[in-house]
Design brief:
This protein has about 600 residues and is of the alpha/beta class. It is built from 21 helices and 17 strands.
């Protein structure tokens, strides 16, 4: 990594990497020429009137980005097979290598934005520091790691002034409203953990170990507690830097197997001068992932204690992460089943999620509890599937949305639930961050701002800060008379009861909350930004009001529809009741209630 130069001469640089308008203004004041080319991914920077700000990701047209993404699934399969064929390598470790290759594509994506001159000509990287979310500072691209061979490359650090950043909270949400959503199951779960911790082990014959939570896991655990199953929270101690000798991984054999595959892919996407450094970065990244796997296994081994007098299982959320893969490894060695449950509706409706198969929970879990048959069918047919799948329905937190019908007449009748989340590079969308901003801008200016109704624009409650600047599309709202901005970091589940018409876009888990409310839902399907699968599009079009952004006259049709009286939209919504019931059964929840009880019966029958 290049050192930060505190005494830099800004006037020497005519080509600069920068993703912050505040940092750029600071650089101008300190001698950077106003004619310097500023290369950025930041929507706010590219939105400015500065003609010298260039789109760093302009090489990524939709077709090229689709090609880049569409080849990832096969690559992760090939890497998994190559690794698993090495003597001594076990499944979870091979998955970890394959997932590491998947994660590295974000760095490869950025490296592909560089050209030959970047490795020989003067370049300046203005890095920013500031308040961030739980993931730490992710506001900067890895230019300092990609351009170490360029002797004329420098980096300078800028700390944001008057900085402010907030994370998701329930402050401002009453205890009554939180209880209405979370229900008695959550209270039962919290009490069970506290009380059972104080009771002697000998009174229990069964135990569930829980390292983390999701809505369905909480409901399952509360049901299990009523059946005298001990619920025990477990967590890792502060991560120790431990070399796990028991794994005895052959790093050389791994590199010999997978580096040719990676080199071929890297050579396909980056300029020739970048190949060597990107390969070096991949080797370093791989070494860190291997070491982290070894260390996490050693730590989980201390936390997960096998009780030979009690039947045990682990109930975990999102085990497709490195923490889950290492936990799965330890559980398998100790003959403790690993159970997980669906934590959101996405896979069954999203067209672009096929590239992420190696990240799915069913890659390591023994048992998966799903909301509906669609996701179970998809996951059972993925290459990495390792689980038994059971359909139990949605947790009551989502089912209860249909009872949230208290309308706040003092607020807007329509809410636009934004899912516009920037990614600082590669995501499952075939849009860059800048193109996503343009799409959001068009919806605001061509549709929402022209409605005869008041509209609330609810921002996505982003925890981890991607860019230093405020989203530029929010400036559009300031210039409208009928749109009010709701930017507090409060989850939409607590706000749905306020509104009569719910609008959202993109095939994400956010959609489930509006759909389960029973209120009219308008869904905007965007071809290049997490679109629906063809089957989901057909079903959702019958149950919801779906508008496709590729249809001729899309903006006019959406605006005309939403300009109708609210009562007329609600009348049209009632006409879809029968189709919507079938849609919900197929793509959201197979049952109307009792997911926790249903899962409990299966656990007693199949696990305990």
């Amino acid at each position: 990594m290049k050192n930060i130069d505190k005494d830099i001469d800004f006037s020497r640089y005519s080509n600069v990497f920068c993703d912050s308008t505040q940092a750029l203004e600071w650089a101008y004041k300190n001698g950077l020429s106003k004619s310097a080319i500023i290369r950025s991914s930041s929507p706010a920077m590219l939105w400015s009137n500065n003609a010298n700000v260039h789109n760093l990701e302009s090489r990524w047209g939709v077709d090229e980005l689709v090609e880049f993404q569409s080849t990832i699934q096969k690559m992760t399969k090939d890497i998994f097979d190559l690794t698993l064929n090495i003597t001594g390598i076990e499944r979870e470790f091979a998955l970890n290598i394959s997932r590491s290759v998947f994660d590295f594509q974000k760095i490869l994506y950025k490296a592909a934005c560089l050209n030959e001159d970047d490795f020989t000509e003067p370049r300046l990287f203005i890095r920013v520091d500031g308040k961030t979310g739980p993931a730490g500072n992710i506001m900067n691209s890895s230019w300092d790691q990609l351009l170490p061979s360029n002797a004329l490359f420098s980096m300078v650090n800028y700390t944001l002034k008057n900085d402010d950043w907030k994370v998701l909270t329930t402050q401002g949400v009453s205890y009554w409203k939180r209880f209405r959503v979370s229900g008695y199951e959550t209270i039962m779960y919290r009490l069970a953990i506290k009380l059972m911790k104080k009771l002697p082990d000998f009174i229990f014959t069964k135990e569930i170990l829980m390292p983390n939570e999701n809505e369905l896991n909480i409901e399952i655990a509360s049901s299990l507690a009523l059946h005298r199953v001990k619920i025990t929270k477990i967590q890792l101690d502060p991560l120790l830097d431990v070399k796990n000798k028991a794994l005895s991984v052959n790093n050389i054999a791994i590199q010999e197997a997978i580096l040719p595959v990676m080199r071929k892919r890297i050579e396909q996407w980056v300029t020739p001068s970048a190949v060597k450094v990107v390969m070096s970065l991949f080797k370093s990244f791989l070494d860190k992932q291997i070491h982290q796997f070894e260390s996490l296994v050693a730590n989980w081994d201390k936390v997960v204690i096998k009780n030979h007098k009690t039947k045990q299982a682990v109930l975990v959320n999102c085990p497709g992460s490195i923490g889950g893969r290492t936990l799965s490894y330890v559980c398998r060695k100790k003959d403790i089943p690993l159970i997980t449950s669906q934590h959101g509706v996405t896979v069954e409706i999203s067209k672009e999620h096929s590239m992420t198969h190696v990240t799915y929970d069913n890659t390591v879990a023994d048992v998966v509890f799903s909301y509906n048959s669609k996701i179970a069918d998809i996951e059972m047919n993925t290459y990495f599937n390792n689980a038994k799948h059971y359909i139990v329905g949605m947790p009551m937190r989502l089912i209860r949305m249909k009872y949230m019908h208290t309308i706040d007449k003092s607020t807007s009748p329509i809410v636009y639930i934004s899912t516009n989340l920037y990614h600082m590079g590669l995501s499952i969308s075939s849009n860059t961050d800048y193109r996503s901003a343009i799409c959001e801008h068009n919806i605001i200016n061509k549709v929402l701002s022209k409605l005869p109704h008041k509209v609330c624009y609810k921002t996505y409650p982003e925890d981890n800060r991607r860019y230093a600047d405020t989203d530029p599309v929010l400036n559009d709202i300031e210039n409208t008379e009928n749109i009010e901005l709701f930017s507090e970091k409060i989850d939409m589940r607590y706000l749905i009861s306020r509104y009569r018409i719910l609008i959202t876009t993109c095939a994400t888990s956010t959609l489930a909350w509006p759909v389960m409310s029973g209120k009219p839902v308008v869904f905007i399907n965007q071809k290049n930004n997490r679109p629906l699968t063809e089957d989901a599009f057909t079903s959702l079009s019958q149950g919801l009001f779906v508008f496709d952004d590729q249809e001729e006259g899309f903006y006019d049709k959406l605006r005309i529809f939403l300009s109708q009286p609210i009562e007329e939209i609600e009348r049209l919504w009632k006409n879809k009741k029968t189709a919507r019931k079938e849609m919900i059964r197929d793509y959201f929840s197979a049952y109307d209630a009792n997911a926790g009880k249903r899962a409990t019966k299966i656990i007693f029958r199949e696990v305990f």
